[in-house]
Known about the structure:
The structure holds 2 protein chains of 2 kinds. Chain A is of the alpha/beta class.
Amino acid sequence: MASVRSNKNIELMTYSEVSDVSGYVGNFKVQIKQKPRYVDISKCTGCGTCQEKCPIKADNEFDAGLGKRKAIYTPFPQAVPNVPVIDTTHCTFFLKSKCRACEKFCEAGAINYEQKEEIVEIEVGNIVVTTGFDSFEPSVIKQFGYGVYDNVVTGIQFERMSNASGPTDGKIVLKDGTAPKSVAILHCIGSRDENYHKYCSRVCCMYSLKFAHLLKEKIHGVTVYQLYIDMRCAGSGYEEFYERLQEEGVNFIRGKAGEITNLAESPEEQGKLMVIVEDTLIRRKLRLPVDMVVLSCALEPRADSERVARVFSLSRKADGFFLEKHPKLDPIATMTDGVFIAGCCQSPKDIPDTVAQASAAAARVLSMISKGSVEIESATAVVDEEHCAGCKVCIDLCSYKAITFDEEKKVSHINEALCKGCGTCVAACPSSAILGKHFTAEQIMSEIEGVLA
Amino acid sequence: MSFEPKIVGILCNWCSYAGADLAGTSRKKYAPNMRVVRVMCSGRVDPTFVLKAFQKGADGVLVCG
Lengths: 453, 65
Ligand SMILES: Cc1cc2nc3c(=O)[nH]c(=O)nc-3n(C[C@H](O)[C@H](O)[C@H](O)COP(=O)(O)OP(=O)(O)OC[C@H]3O[C@@H](n4cnc5c(N)ncnc54)[C@H](O)[C@@H]3O)c2cc1C
């Protein structure tokens, strides 16, 4: 991110969101909403004094609620740019017009409570959408007790704990600060489940193995269980990693947990979380007493993906992820020329696959730019100006806003760069004055005769 | 001999034709009675196409889009 920011050919706009896109490939107009940070980027030195002095604490979203942050904060230490933002829902100044501690202590004079939201408009030729995924919220599966039992955590929370600059400085700990002696990692939470998402989230088997490996590395003698439906370790070096974990002494149990409870049935179970599961390989019901449970949650479409799809004229698949132009032959392009997709917004995938897809998208854009012109579909519609009566019926029918009215000649005109060749205007024209190239009435009629011959 | 209707399916390139194509690549079978004519959008369908199909002996016409 830091090198992206320092590259003079890239303008990085953080804390910003695209609110509207108009135009077409090569000529998009994009409106970007820049949210107010209440800190002047050009003045802030990133010294961090404001964050030290701010008296208000709130849950840190980036740490998935495990750590705290101030009301003026940077989400994580490596954030680019290293400039904080004021969270107006917690800041005392915005709530009660009092405090101003950050402003008082900022030597650079960078605090500006008056900043307003700004809309910037830019012109671009191509767009790559890489909006990623949301993590499935597991508290809806009541029997797992997420949010009820302290030591039932999500994969994201485990990630933050194991991060050296995270809320626990890289230590895997229970709520009371001690290291767990036994941990169960539950696969397919919200994935491959008729009640939530039917699809496989594809990355959880591998990150669950990574978690087991980190546990074995960080906590001497820890017992680790993996509860899986099927192990899916397809990828270069992935099966080998699975074998290595088996050698490291991780217990693999084929079965999906039915319940997590703290109700002890024997003295050994006191103070533990019991994971109840049927081991389907030995056909026996097990009660596993553990200190911590990690829920490997599904990757799901972002909550705002419907709105984002509308802004960029994207279609979505039945599971809600963005639809590619062709699942095999064009997994990067979309139905909208000049708009590409990469990463988990298209489907759950790991970092190597995301990087591959993003590189492909960049290459596609570069090839468009270096050519300097775009190839458009040959199957477009053209108006025969001799026959056009100027009734304008076609204009309102066109979903792509490709038809305009030439006031001088009093005829309709079709912009071939915008026309998708759907032929609606061709069928609707009362004077038969529009020709649908490659789908003329004669061609379709002959085809109908042909299929019935 | 049972009745085997001849049905002309006029399918939209983006949805129903793509669906028929997907059925093919997924090795799913569908009845051969439907004979497919692809258009770029069901909006392209002119009522005369349907009449033409009946005139040439179709028992049914399916417009999908
Ligand atoms: C617990 C867990 C562990 C994992 N471990 C591994 C691992 O060890 N190895 C591995 O290869 N993969 C791992 N993965 C998978 C990895 O996280 C994904 O492959 C990767 O994050 C996908 O990158 P992305 O850029 O598509 O999406 P994201 O990482 O989700 O990034 C999308 C970004 O877009 C931003 N955004 C979203 N909407 C908008 C908008 N409208 N405007 C502006 N910005 C927006 C988001 O804030 C976010 O920063 C793991 C996943 C999980 C859940």
